[in-house]
Amino acid sequence: MKKIFVMSFAFLLSLVLLVGCNSGPTSAPKSNDAKDNDEIKVAIILKTLSNPFWTKMEEGIKEEAEELGVKVEILAAQSEDDMQGQLRMFEDLLNKDYDGIGFAPLSPVNLIPQAVNAYKKEIPTVNIDEKLDMDELVKSGGNVNAFVTTDNVQVGEQAANFIVEKIQKGQVAIVEGKSGNASGEARKNGAKGVFESTDGIELVASQPADWDRNKALDVVTNMIQRYPDLTAIYAANDTMALGALQAVINAGKKDQIIVVGTDGAPEAIDSVKAGNLTATIAQDSAEIGKESLRLLVKAIKDNKVLSLDEAAELVTVPSYVVSE
Questions:
Q1: What is the CA radius of gyration of the chain?
Q2: Which of 41, 170, 262, 283 could form a disulfide with 71 if both were Cys (CB 3.0 to 4.6 A apart)?
């Protein structure tokens, strides 16, 4: 009997130790062996390819993929309103044999369901440009390895500081992106903070134009009519800045109102060189794409997804002013 008791106790002890070893957050590497670069296959979902910001990012990703020797497939939503289409795109990728997925969501929440599914499958992910609502993501049972972006609050501040230095005093306005869009809200808030804290500067209007050139044209046309003493406009992207510029030209006020955009799009830079658009705050979208791919490949080679209580690595790529 004593022998049987000892054997039973030893068996129970081994079970307790086994359970203990397998409990806790899953931050350990996945069981498969690390791959060589030429075996790695990743997918990147961008917002759209109808905007130069994203086509430059696509070019940067392809260049870095060639440099690293990895295979990459780049996809994009049909438009910046196609949130369900982008979500289905992510869902389709999860049914294919990708080692990692990078994505630039159209909103802070539209890709959360599939980001959670990727996490559950232990597929490393990198969040690009537009940040997911991380509280909601973690609450839903998911996480990402890294987040790569430009500091969009700083972008707005750079634009506003440039305008303040240029005009010294006067009435200013902001043309916002799509209401609720995190990047656009951050740029607006950065600019608004500078304008409202500067003596002699009066922020008279701040309205969305949904990243659209024609909507910006209409919005700014109405602003000029309502505020005839307007002296400067900050637009949260270059597409809207060029629409705002057209409204200024149409009103015959090019010598009175300066326009500053965001992104450093080729057309905007050409306009600055021609003496039309006053400036653009250029983001290095190609470098954002490259850094996103580098971090994704690193996570794949490390065979690691973060536990729910680990913070994703944050990498910001600097922006800069392009002016006459």
A1: 25
A2: 41
Tokens 């003496």, located at residue: 275
pLDDT at 3: 43
Return the amino acid letter for 184.
G
200 burial class (0-12, 13-18, 19+ CB within 10 angstroms)?
Answer: exposed
> To which H or E segment does residue 75 belong?
strand 71-76
Phi, psi for 205 (deg, rounded to 5): -160, 145
Helix (H) or strand (E) holding 135: helix 134-139
In the chain, the percentage of residues whose pLDDT exceeds 90 is: 82
Q: What angle do CA 319, 130, 180 make, to 5 degrees?
A: 110
Give yes or no on whether 37-149+285-317 and 152-283 have one common fold: yes
CATH top class, domain 152-283: alpha beta
Task: Give the DSSP letter string of 292-309.
Answer: HHHHHHHHHHHT----TT
d(CA 254, CA 246): 9
Flag whether pLDDT at 318 surpasses 70: yes
Domain map (residue ranges) of the chain: 37-149+285-317, 152-283
Q: What is the pLDDT of residue 30?
A: 46
The DSSP H or E segment spanning 262 is: strand 258-263
Q: Could you tell me the sign of the dihedral formed by the alpha carbons of 259, 209, 179, 53, in that order?
A: negative
Q: What is the pLDDT of residues 246-264, one digit of tens each?
A: 999 999 999 999 999 999 9
Output the CATH code of domain 37-149+285-317.
3.40.50.2300
Q: Predicted confidence band at 23 (pLDDT cuts at 50, 70, 90)? A: very low
Q: pLDDT value at position 267? A: 95
Distances (CA, A) of 1 to 4, 10, 51, 212: 5, 14, 79, 84
The sign of the CA dihedral 215, 218, 220, 226 is negative
Residue 201 CA to residue 178 CA, distance in Å, equals 25
